Amino acid sequence: MNITNKLGRVAGMAVAAVAICWLSMAGVASANAAQPALQNNFGCAFQTSNGHYLTAVDGGGRTTEVIHTDATQIQAWERFTLVPLGGGVYAIQTVDGHYLTAVGGGGRITDVIHTDARQIQAWERFSLIFLANNVYGIETVNGHFLTAVGAGGRTTDTIHSDATQILGWERFTVTCGH
After folding, report:
1. Mean pLDDT score of the chain, rounded to an integer?
2. pLDDT given for residue 178 in this prediction
3. For residues 135 and 122, is the Cβ–Cβ distance under 8 A?
4. What integer pLDDT is reported at residue 177 of this predicted model?
5. Confidence grade of residue 35 (pLDDT, cut at 50, 70, 90)
6. Contact yes or no for 90/82 (Cβ under 8 A)
7. What is the spatial distance between Cα 81 and Cα 127, in angstroms, rounded to a whole number?
8. 118 exposed, middle or buried (CB, 10 Å; 0-12, 13-18, 19+)?
9. What's the CA gap between 86 and 64, in Å, rounded?
10. Nearest to 52, CA basis, from 165, 154, 123
11. Which of 74, 95, 97, 119 is the most exposed place for a label (fewest CB within 10 A)?
């Protein structure tokens, strides 16, 4: 192999290494590679960082007073079905068969979530970003993350969808198959 070919191979390997490092730092490679498949996608509960559970008020079908974060036990309204759409993307279905909607695709602090959708469209798609030990960030279709305001324990101003990174209040423990 002549010197030109060797230099070309070394340059190609260097470019590949830089690309892998960049993707890892951006979270692209690690988020999907390490993400385990959620098993038994029915009866799933979302627990906030302070130990409360998300509740679909009245089991779903609402556009106001939609989600509470003050439940301390998993009952019917705290159970959701994760409908896999591929690539770590899910629709989140309430116990009455409606889907969670990130109004406007996300990026909001008022009129954030509805539970009245009967069909899965763009705003009903959420990426579950695996962090560790059944803890996930919930990303909306436009790249924002759901936040349990005050870490949970609320009945008003409960969820925002304007976070651009996953910090403490954007972490949810997801357990399925209760």
Report:
1. 85
2. 62
3. no
4. 85
5. low
6. yes
7. 14
8. exposed
9. 30
10. 154
11. 119
The amino acid at residue 130 is F
Q: What are phi and psi of 51, to 5 degrees?
A: 95, 0
> Alpha-carbon distance 50 to 115, whole Å?
24
Give phi and psi for 130, each to the nearest 5. -70, 130
For residue range 102-157, what is the model confidence (pLDDT) as tens digits?
999 999 999 999 999 999 999 999 999 999 999 999 999 999 999 999 999 999 99
For residue 13, pLDDT over 60 is answered with: no
pLDDT at 2: 52
168 burial (CB, 10 Å; 0-12 / 13-18 / 19+) is: exposed
Q: What is the three-state SS of the chain?
A: CCHHHHHHHHHHHHHHHHHHHHHHHHCHHHHHHCCCCCCCCCCEEEECCCCCEEEEHHHCCCCCCCEEEEECCCCHHHCEEEEEEECCEEEEECCCCCEEEEHHHCCCCCCCEEEEECCCCHHHCEEEEEEECCEEEEECCCCCEEEEHHHCCCCCCCEEEEECCCCHHHCEEEECCC
Partners of 42 in the beta sheet? none
Q: Burial-class residue 169 by CB neighbours within 10 Å (0-12, 13-18, 19+).
A: buried
pLDDT at residue 94, as a whole number? 98
Smallest Cα–Cα separation from 128: which of 171, 95, 70? 171
